[in-house]
Specification:
alpha/beta, Leucine Aminopeptidase, subunit E, domain 1, Aminopeptidase, 14 helices, 35% helix
């Protein structure tokens, strides 16, 4: 899709459709709507006056212009009550428009740059939201389709139109940000949607190497012999059950400025999780291809960071392996030694994510990061606690947590803090090792985070548990069902804030 920014009058731009938002509690038409209404002989006033279109949130209505203007259609999308409207709801409205365009197979769409839609929001931020929303709404995973894929039509042209006085340079900056983040988001959704026989640890490593080549990043991939030599016993224990060789992937972005802060991003890269010897139920096990979502997210984030040229030194670390049962698999009751030197009693091989993250987080300390953020589909308990709407966050640093919460409000990727009290470590105390990897059903999400906290030393650290939000089973206003890419926009915004 080509995205362009033009100066001009919205009623004079040729297009298959014009996107037009409207509020349910606004009796008067907005500026762009007034121009279109006048040019079409009052069509908008008529359809709104009859009550056919009420402007309820996410309601859509297609109005044929009958050649009154160069655009063939006007796509009305409801925004709900203006008093309750914000940037997050605007994003959902734009996603809805993108989904409509995708389903109807339109080739071009025009969006008027109307600053009055949300007062006080810079036009470049609106432009970024428009682009991200349309890309998200258009997204579909068709890589493995054959006959149906031939019928798929793509939006070829998205045009943002502003009148005289609009700073097009700043709008283009917003468009550029939106395209960069959207490309990274699509990368993540593609990776997470792909089956585990296509996205193995080796293939994930090859993807990282391609991203590095295309974006001037450093990439290092360690194989089993190197992982063993480093003493990553926790990671190796999980990898033992699979015939697919594990890979320890590092991507590094260095900015041009000197003295930049270092941020370590660590993502769980379990490309398929059967639970190991502690075998999961067969129901929904097919979705365990998505257990590498955290690794995919940090890969997408560092791609975006490099293209945005942020003034941060960012290191993305992805320990990648499968977790399978076999004659060589690690077992409940085993004691393993981690990269940090601490010993762990394995009580469940289905609590494998924290084991591979423990070694990866400890490894990240060699870069002396100012902050560590890990992302993982870590616990089913987080789904029980927060469902699939909200990501659980825990951490040891109030300032870093505040940055994540601020980014959440900007991006609409909702987060909720759970307590990280040392008392919860009681669940993980072991009689024969430094601690256990799991201590029962109680406070499962907190247990996972408490476990990881033992490997960050005194570094500021935040843990994102995306077990509920990385994959959804039903369409939502913000995402189509399937892989969501949750965490990409959130973490890019966090890093933008830290770089500023």
């Amino acid at each position: 899709m080509k995205v362009s920014v033009k100066k001009g009058r919205i009623e004079k731009i040729p297009s298959e459709a014009i996107f037009l938002p409207h509020f349910a509690d606004n009796d008067k038409l907005g500026y762009s709507a007034q121009l279109l209404d006048k040019a079409t002989g009052g069509l908008l006033t008529e359809v709104i006056g009859t009550g056919d279109f009420k402007g309820e949130l996410h309601q859509t209505y297609i109005l044929l212009t009958r050649q009154a203007i160069p655009a063939k259609r006007i796509l009305l999308v409801g925004c709900g009550r203006k008093s309750n409207f914000n940037l997050v709801k605007l994003r959902a409205v734009i996603v809805k428009a993108g989904q409509k365009v995708r389903d109807l197979g339109w080739k071009s769409l025009t969006i008027p740059l109307s600053p009055e839609i949300i007062e006080g929001v810079p036009l470049e931020d609106l432009a970024q939201v428009y682009v991200e929303g349309i890309y998200s709404g258009l997204y579909r995973f068709t890589q493995f389709r054959t006959t149906e894929r031939k019928r798929v039509k793509e939006l070829e042209q998205l045009t943002l139109v502003g009148e005289d006085g609009v700073n097009l340079k700043r709008v283009r900056e917003g468009v550029n940000r939106g395209e960069i983040i959207s490309d990274s988001l699509s990368l993540v959704r593609d990776l997470v949607s792909s089956p585990s026989n296509k996205i193995t640890p080796t293939m994930l490593a090859e993807t990282a190497q391609r991203i590095a080549r295309e974006n001037g990043l450093r990439c290092k991939v360690l194989g089993l012999a190197q992982i063993k030599k480093l003493g990553m016993g926790a990671f190796l224990a999980v990898a033992k059950g699979s015939q697919e060789p594990a890979k320890f992937i590092t991507l590094e972005y260095r900015p041009k400025v000197k003295g930049a802060k270092t941020i370590a991003l660590v993502g769980k890269g379990i490309t398929f999780d059967s639970g190991g010897i502690s075998l999961k139920p067969s129901k929904d096990m097919d979705k365990m291809k998505a257990d590498m979502a955290g690794g995919a997210v940090v890969m997408g984030v560092i791609q975006a960071v490099s293209q945005l040229n942020l003034s941060l030194h960012v290191v993305a670390i992805i320990p990648a392996t499968e977790n399978l049962p076999s004659g060589s698999a690690y077992k409940p009751g085993d004691v393993i030694s981690s990269f940090s030197g601490q010993t762990i009693e394995v009580t469940s091989t289905d609590a494998e994510g924290r084991l591979i993250l423990a070694d990866a987080i400890a490894y990240s300390l060699k870069y002396h990061p100012s902050a560590i953020i890990d992302v993982a589909t870590l616990t089913g308990a987080c789904i029980i606690a927060l469902g699939d709407y909200v990501t659980g966050i825990l951490g040891n640093d109030d300032d870093l947590m505040a940055q994540v919460k601020k980014a959440s409000r900007v991006t609409g990727e909702m987060v909720w803090e759970l307590p990280l009290l040392e008392e919860y470590f009681e669940y993980l105390k072991s009689d024969i090792a430094d601690f256990k990897n799991a201590g029962g059903r109680e406070a499962g999400t907190i247990q996972g985070a408490i476990f990881l906290s033992k490997f960050v030393k005194n570094r500021p650290w935040v843990h994102l548990d995306i077990a509920g939000t990385a994959w959804i089973d039903k369409d939502k206003p913000y995402h189509a069902k399937g892989a969501t890419g949750i965490g990409v926009r959130l973490l890019v915004q966090v890093l933008r804030q830290l770089s500023e």
